[in-house]
Every structure is written in structure tokens, then in C-alpha cells.
Amino acid sequence: MADFLRPLPKPTPETQEFWDGCKSGELRLQRCTDCKHAYFPPRAFCPACSSRAVETFKASGKASLYSYIINHRPRPDYGDKPHSIAVVTLAEGPRMMTNIVDCPQTPEALILDMPLEVTFEKASETISLPKFRPAKG
After folding, report:
1. What is the pLDDT of residue 79?
2. CB count, 10 Å around CB of 90?
3. How do residues 16-56 score in pLDDT, each as one tens digit?
4. pTM for the whole thing?
């Protein structure tokens, strides 16, 4: 487990199932059962049609790199090495903000649209953070 000095997310009733999934190594999303729209972040209603008929499902964990920046001057509680702050497009459609790990933090390595897969970093006994790495194969 990493030594996290920075604040960690605090699950709410709307996000608890997402964080429980991350803890167990699953990326969970929500989908409207009326209009079939998949979305992130979790909430009690569909952002497309406002229906409250929503369900949680296990996502594939596959994504592509949509956008990023490389933070060369991180806050002290983020360490002293450059790291990416990225937006990925999940295979199911939603986008989420994350970090890209297990590859050099350079523009030559972080190629837009590159295939990614989810990995989880255990931050505490209750929180594992979803991050993405280049897909294998």
C-alpha cells in the first residue's frame, strides 16, 4: 500500500458501489435502464434523460487516452516526479479523469488514442484508486 499523504475520496451513498468495486478490482459504471446511457461519475439519476431507473454494471476496464498534461511541479504530497493528469475515454463511452502509470511520463510515450487498461492502486484499507496503464498485447 502506498504512503498517501494527500486527501483521499470519501465515498457517499451515490459513489459507495463504485469505490467498493475499485477495492475489489472492478471498474463499475452506471447505466440508465430507460435510455441505456452509460455514465460517470455515479449519481442517482441519468444525466441524459433524468430517469432514476439506473443500474450498476462491471465495465471492461478498457479505455483510450483522450487528453493529458504532465505535471512537472507536483505538490509535495504528490511526490517529486512528473506525473500525468489524464482524461480517458472508457470503452463503454464515458470519460473519466485519472493518471497514466507504468510508462514514461513523456509526450513520446503518452500518445493520444493509445489503448489503456485499468489498474488499481491501494491507497488505504477502504480506497483503491483507478488508474490506467498502456494495454498489453
Report:
1. 75
2. 22
3. 999 999 999 999 999 999 999 999 999 999 999 999 999 99
4. 0.91
Question: 10: helix, coil or strand?
Answer: coil
- State the Cα–Cα distance between residues 127 and 121, nearest whole angstrom: 9
In three state form, how does the secondary structure of 53-110 look?
CEEEEECCCEEEEEEEEEECCCCHHHCCCCEEEEEEEECCCCEEEECECCCCCCCCCC
Q: Is the peptide bond before 7 cis (omega within 30 degrees of 0)?
A: no
User: Alpha-carbon Rg of the chain, whole angstroms?
Assistant: 16
Query: Is 25 in a helix, a strand, or coil?
Result: coil
Whole-number pLDDT of residue 3: 63
Dist. CA 38–CA 23, nearest whole Å: 21
| Mean local confidence (pLDDT), 99-108 | 96
d(CA 6, CA 119): 20
CB 32 within 8 A of CB 53: yes
